[in-house]
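Hey, quick one: can you model this chain's 3D structure?
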Amino acid sequence: MRRYFEDFTPGDEIELGQHTIAKESIIAFAREFDPQTFHLDEDAAKDTIFGGLVASGWHTGSLTMRLFYEGVIKHVVSLGSPGIDELRWIKPVRPGDTLMGRMTVTECVPSRSKPDRGIVRSLLELRNQHGEVVVTIKGMSLLGRRPQP
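Sure thing. Here's the predicted structure for all 149 residues.
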């Protein structure tokens, strides 16, 4: 079933699923996009402020997007996004962490100029297996409105 703008209400919470992050994926992402020592080299990372290998914040942001896609976007009439307002990396993500996503709807605003769409603002949170928030993203989704008969 497709969901539309009208199907969202401020306060709605949607569980987005989970993902366990592997050491190999942390290193592969770092090798290509963020080759800082604490993301790339397990031994050298022991001598950093993290005391061991940690995922790039950009990697955890990408994982958040994947969970958001699986839990929401692939089920809605998505018209893209005008952007995000805030991205925070709260705690380091380590190999073997299981990350769970949640979306909380914060605001729903119909477009004034284009009646076929609206903006849903939300808070995306990624928590680790200990329930600790590791990433937050305040963003917005442009969603289609339900067609009128």
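One thing worth noting: The longest strand covers residues 98-110.
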